[in-house]
Amino acid sequence: MTAEVRFRFDGKVAIVTGAARGVGREIVRAFVEAGAHVVAADRDGEGLAETCAPHGDVVASVIADVSTGEGAKAIVERAVAAFGRLDICVNDAAVAPHAALLEERVDVWDRVYAVNCRGTFLMTQAAARAMIAGGRGGRIINFSSGAAQRGAAGGAAYASSRAATETFSRVAAIELAPHGILVNTISPGLIDTQPKPLPPDMAKRLAARIPNLPLARPGRPDEVAQLVLFLASDASSYINGAVISIDGASSAGSRFSGVVVDDDTRYDWVTGRSRSGP
Ligand SMILES: NC(=O)c1ccc[n+]([C@@H]2O[C@H](COP(=O)([O-])OP(=O)(O)OC[C@H]3O[C@@H](n4cnc5c(N)ncnc54)[C@H](O)[C@@H]3O)[C@@H](O)[C@H]2O)c1
């Protein structure tokens, strides 16, 4: 199957945080392919250099920590200094350490919230200020996780921090709409960004989980990048304040294998099935 939909961002400038690996790296690649200039930001300088190497001077890199005011300011200022404007800001950077609730450490909890929540807030605020100064509106795309919608052991800090991102983004969508800035949230299910080779426990967990996903596979980073392009494009001009899942239906339920059998006789009067018949 060939996807014929193409979004173009010639003349547009996009920030992508969390660009040193995983989904962020793929979002940078997708924007470059679609004609945008990109500011790729991350705290990991080595990974960032690998992301940027293939793209030449259409990508500017910034080593910065999104959880600090100085970091967020440096990233946004780089976009305006390098390319003269800012149209799109994708806040992909996040951390997801897991711990049993009874073992959870306060300093780790605070760091998760600093990156995932404060970072999203600081980047949204700094990007929105630059977009308003530019007078052309803009798009801000934040990240959540399917984990925000369900309980899962070990995810107290991460899952709740992602839920906070969703609510924050709804508020931002309302406050920034008068400026022509749309704010949406992407909520991925399992995406194939885990370290390779997989650490042993993670390998065991994924081997048990993946066959039960409705599509029996994790999503690919490039599939998430295509959703980012859609939300950054004119094709999504009336989507604002939304949380959009990209999870192959894992939030809907588990993989179906087998046939549907209904031998509940209570509804024979609805189906017309006779008790003696098939
Ligand atoms: N991979 C999944 O299965 C999955 C599932 C649900 C949601 N998500 C969400 O998708 C997004 C991308 O996930 P991923 O798997 O590619 O993540 P990842 O951990 O592979 O990459 C995250 C990147 O963010 C960077 N980063 C972390 N803290 C930072 C900080 N303070 N400042 C700047 N950069 C920082 C890291 O260095 C890294 O390059 C995240 O927002 C995550 O919550 C991922």
Describe the protein in words:
The two termini are 39 Å apart. The chain has eight helices and seven strands; from the N terminus they run βαβαβαβαβαβααβα. The chain is 40% helix and 14% strand. Strands 3-2-1-4-5-6-7 form a seven-stranded parallel sheet, sandwiched between helices. The chain is an alpha/beta fold and 278 residues long. The protein binds nicotinamide-adenine-dinucleotide. The site of nicotinamide-adenine-dinucleotide has 27 residues, from α1 and α4.
Q: Helical stretch count?
A: 8
> What is the oligomeric state here?
single chain
Radius of gyration: 21 Å
Strand order of the largest sheet: 3-2-1-4-5-6-7
Shape: globular
Helix content: 25-40%
Q: Give the H and E element order.
A: EHEHEHEHEHEHHEH
The poorly predicted ranges are: none
Q: Let me know the largest β-sheet.
A: 7 strands, parallel
State the distance separating the first and last CA atoms.
Answer: 39 Å
- Small molecules held by this entry: nicotinamide-adenine-dinucleotide
Number of DSSP strand runs: 7
Percent range for β-strand residues: 5-15%
Mean pLDDT comes to: 96
Structural class: alpha/beta
Give me a quick take on this structure.
The chain has helices at residues 22-33, 45-52, 69-83, 106-134, 156-176, 200-209, 221-232, 268-271, and strands at 13-17, 37-42, 59-63, 88-91, 138-143, 181-188, 243-246.
Secondary structure topology:
Blueprint: E1 13-17, H1 22-33, E2 37-42, H2 45-52, E3 59-63, H3 69-83, E4 88-91, H4 106-134, E5 138-143, H5 156-176, E6 181-188, H6 200-209, H7 221-232, E7 243-246, H8 268-271
The protein binds nicotinamide-adenine-dinucleotide.
